[in-house]
Structure to design on (346 residues):
């Protein structure tokens, strides 16, 4: 399968092959310009080092963002900007490797430690997406982390970055636990977060001659707890809010954060996993890095009993996280179709 980068760089490319033509409802191409559709901003420093009043207020704002949006912009998170830039540059260098060099990292199984490819799941798709990817599974219980050995320094820079993201996600989940009226470490313990899976997902979206006909990634929710995204300054991520698509434009040195399916399950539906998509453009290459933070693979995730009641019975059946990941990654991306399979019909 030809990577999209090579196709996009074909001399004289003025239209996309029919395999990449993604049909959308005309209304789905509209993007909200309503000031009311302004993505919430959460100041991480107030969650971790503010006064008790500031922290309480920040937790309340975080809970509101999770409930109303499932999406927020995270600032003052403590990850050095130079480190973020270094990771993006290493990702750029990886995608600049030759086809043969990248082919050794293709991977064949969904839970292979490293998988490099194009689209999402080409073995199942009738329409391909305008995207190349590199996925790396990071399990803290496995001390033999597998990273591509090219470009030089990629492994060291990326692993240190992922450790920092893990700590940021841990603090966010503590605050989210409190916003749900639970003990600060409730989610951490319920998901065995100490052994939680991280997925390093690097995406390349090259310029597309007909961006209105193509799609980088279709509308979907993520399988984990929280996903933290950074990008190279080129927009393209859109989030669904009140039935409208909203551009998720990041400011420098910030993260775009979305809630994912396991958090919706654990919160018994109080916090919904966010539906988002990636659109493409004709001018510039977009590079993004999503770090998906999830439970340990062997942990059974079910609604917190403390969030169940006579009026609100468990809305989801329990499922081992590993099985959920394989279910989502082994099918086509289609909104929240995977989550629909674990809904309890009372």
């Amino acid at each position: 399968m030809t990577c999209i980068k090579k196709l996009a760089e074909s001399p004289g490319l003025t239209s996309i092959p029919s395999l990449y033509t993604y049909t959308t409802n005309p209304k789905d191409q509209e993007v909200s310009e309503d000031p009311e559709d302004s993505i919430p901003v959460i100041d991480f420093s107030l969650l971790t080092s503010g006064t008790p009043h500031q922290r309480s207020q920040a937790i309340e704002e975080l809970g509101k963002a999770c409930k109303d949006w499932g999406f927020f912009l995270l600032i003052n998170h403590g990850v050095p900007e130079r480190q973020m830039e270094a990771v993006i540059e290493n990702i750029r260098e990886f995608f600049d490797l030759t086809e043969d060099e990248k082919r050794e990292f293709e991977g064949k199984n969904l839970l292979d430690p490293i998988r490099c490819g194009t689209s999402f799941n080409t073995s199942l798709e009738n329409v391909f997406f305008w995207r190349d990817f590199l996925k790396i599974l990071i399990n803290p219980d496995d001390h033999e982390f597998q990273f591509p050995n090219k470009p030089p320094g990629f492994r060291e820079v990326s692993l240190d970055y992922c450790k920092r993201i893990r700590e940021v996600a841990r603090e966010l989940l503590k605050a989210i636990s409190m916003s749900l009226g639970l003990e600060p470490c409730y989610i951490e313990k319920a998901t065995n977060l100490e052994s939680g899976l991280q997925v390093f997902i690097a995406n390349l979206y090259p310029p597309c001659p007909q961006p209105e006909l193509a799609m980088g990634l279709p509308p979907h929710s993520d399988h984990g707890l929280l996903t933290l995204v950074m990008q190279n300054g080129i927009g393209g991520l859109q989030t669904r809010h009140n039935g409208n698509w909203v551009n998720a434009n990041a400011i420098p040195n910030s993260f775009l954060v979305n809630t994912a399916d396991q958090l919706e399950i654990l919160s018994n539906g109080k916090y919904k996993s966010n539906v988002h998509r990636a659109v493409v453009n004709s001018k510039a290459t977009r590079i993004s890095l999503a770090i998906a933070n999830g439970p340990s693979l062997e942990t059974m995730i079910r609604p917190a009993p403390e969030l169940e009641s006579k009026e609100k019975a468990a809305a989801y059946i329990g499922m081992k996280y590993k099985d959920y990941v394989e279910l989502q990654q082994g099918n086509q991306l289609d909104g929240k179709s995977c989550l629909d399979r674990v809904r309890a019909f009372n």
Q: What stands out?
A: DSSP finds ten helices and 14 strands in the chain.
